[in-house]
Amino acid sequence: MNDRLLRIKLDTFRPLGEMVYESLRDAIISQTLKPGERLMETDLAEELGVSRTPVREAIRKLELEGYVVMIPRKGAYVAGLSIKDINEVFEIRGSLEALAAALAATRATQGEIDEMERHLLLEAHHWETSDLIKTIEVDTRFHELIYKAARNSRLLNMIREIREQVQRFRTTSLGVPGRMKFAISEHRRIVEAIADRDPETAQKAAHDHIESSEHALLEVISYQKE
After folding, report:
1. What are the phi and psi torsion angles at 81 (to 5°)?
2. Distance (Å, rounded) from C-alpha 108 to C-alpha 201?
3. Fewer CB atoms inside 10 A, N or C side of the chain?
4. Going from the N-terminus, what domains does the chain have, and what CATH number goes with each?
5. b/e 68-106 (16+ beta carbons within 10 angstroms → b)
6. Cα-only R_g, the chain
7. Quick count: other Cβ atoms within 10 Å of Cβ 152?
8. SS3 98
9. pTM assigned to the model
10. C-alpha torsion 218→222→223→226, nearest 10
11. pLDDT tens, 97-154?
12. pLDDT (tens digit, 9 = 90+) per residue, 149-186?
């Protein structure tokens, strides 16, 4: 094995399989486990200090969510990021995020707007951090505040269907130097439009934000292929 260190976030109140799944998912998101890397059940179980069974179950779940691909007669591998996958996911995400922001501009309570504005301060505090997982958590929380304020349960369910794939893309896009700083500025424009009760501007600001994220991601992938 290499010198990386995979760890389980121990929690006596949760099943071991769930903790193994989260550890492997976070390792893929942070690219500790890199695209194209083979996932050996025995080696991963040894690293995590568990049996092969929860590792096998976690790999199956990760396959269903698009993090892992199974190649016949070869085994499990960390899935790569194809341009087609990125385009399809961001087409959907851009439309859903724009709709959520527009609805939030008409339905958000003043308390929810205040919470969004406080969250912008939290983002500013974290944007220089080297903890990419934490940065993603903070960014994810911002979007969840908008989804909540949109008050549309079916929209929320649709967004959740692609959230896991989006999380992985965020690792690459937010890892671009300076990207989080620009993302905070884009978030601020969305919140300002919501606070102004301007659904059209909120919709455009949200859609522009997602397009900007996609462009950052594609630039990284283009650079890696050169």
Report:
1. -110, 105
2. 15
3. C
4. 16-78 (1.10.10.10), 83-225 (1.20.120.530)
5. bbeeeeeebbbbebeeeebeebbebbbebbbbbbbbbbe
6. 19
7. 15
8. helix
9. 0.74
10. 170
11. 999 999 999 999 999 999 999 999 888 877 665 666 777 788 889 999 999 999 999 9
12. 999 999 999 988 887 667 767 666 666 666 778 889 99
- What does the DSSP 8-state code read for residue 175? T
Enclosing H/E stretch for 39: strand 38-39
Nearest one of 80, 53, 83 to 68, comparing CA atoms: 80
With pLDDT > 70 as the criterion, what percentage of the chain qualifies?
85
Q: What is the mean pLDDT of residues 23-34?
A: 85
Task: Report the distance separating Cα 190 and Cα 58, nearest Å.
Answer: 36
Residue 190: CB partners within 8 Å, gap ≥ 6?
101, 146, 202, 205, 206, 209
Tokens of 17: 């399989």
Interacting residues of 137 by C-beta distance below 8 A, sequence separation 6+ = none
Length of the chain: 226
Q: Which residue has the higher pLDDT, 221 or 98?
A: 98
Cα–Cα distances in angstroms (integers) from residue 92 to residues 22, 30, 131, 203, in the given order:
25, 24, 28, 14
As given in the structure block, the two tokens for residue 99 are 């709709």
